[in-house]
Amino acid sequence: MTNQQTTLDNPPGSTREQLPADVLTLLAHRTYLSTACETGRLLDGAIIRNPQRDDLPGWRDRMHQRCRLGQKFTGELCSCPCHRPPEA
Known about the structure:
Elements: H1 3-9, H2 21-24, H3 35-49, H4 56-65
Helix pairs in contact: 3-4
């Protein structure tokens, strides 16, 4: 199948392959995780794999501190556990 055939079978803007709205509502939706907190979580793995790097925990903490907390367009709050108050 050529690229031109694919374009003809599914032209731009076609909704033929989209799931129906009632099916989409049944899917589990991921919660928002800011890019800063996602990077902080990835740094946790780097800390484990590179224990000799004393600077990595500082970088992780800075990433979490940079989180904007709310998604810029939707306002959804970041779901990272770093934003929850410590349990007493």
